[in-house]
Amino acid sequence: EVQLVESGGGLVQAGGSLRLSCAASGFTFDDYTIGWFRQAPGKEREGVSCINNRDRSTYYADSVKGRFTISTDNAKNTVYLQMNSLKPEDTAVYYCNIGTYWGQGTQVTVSS
Questions:
Q1: Are strands 46-52 and 106-111 parallel, antiparallel or unpaired?
Q2: Angstrom distance (rounded) from CA 38 to CA 92
Q3: What is the pLDDT averaged over residues 19-48?
Q4: Angle in degrees, CA 108, 76, 64, rounded to 5
Q5: SS3 string of the chain?
Q6: What are the Cα distances from residue 77, in Å, to 1, 28, 55, 56?
Q7: What are the Cα distances from residue 50, in Å, to 1, 12, 112?
Q8: pLDDT over 90 at 31, yes or no
């Protein structure tokens, strides 16, 4: 059974940092593109960042460029999202995605 489990969310003040983790089980994601998405209340889910685990290319939404960094630890089947200089507008539920699989989400709340 394929499972994605996110962790690392929480409440942080503006300017602070959080590191989200997404642990995958049931398959190895060496050959996949792995993405982080987020959904704020009343808004559509949006792509934040993704990494192609074959060529290691990355993508970042303009709103997070220079502040967020995506990385993977293939030995642990885990993808990370390091989030620095957080802003109140980063408040959302963050989800990881691989193919058709989604995690349950982790809440990130940034206070002003």
A1: unpaired
A2: 6
A3: 92
A4: 35
A5: CCEEEEECCEEEECCCCEEEEEEEECCCCCCCEEEEEEECCCCCCEEEEEEECCCCCEEECCCCCCCEEEEEEHHHCEEEEEECCCCHHHCEEEEEEECCEECCCEEEEEEC
A6: 15, 6, 16, 15
A7: 23, 23, 27
A8: no
Distance of alpha carbon 43 from alpha carbon 63, whole angstroms: 15
pLDDT digits (tens, 9 = 90+) for 57-77: 999 999 999 999 999 998 999
Give 8: exposed, middle or buried? Use CB within 10 Å, 0-12, 13-18, 19+.
Answer: middle
- 61-67's contacts with Cβ under 8 Å and 24+ in sequence apart are 63/89, 64/90
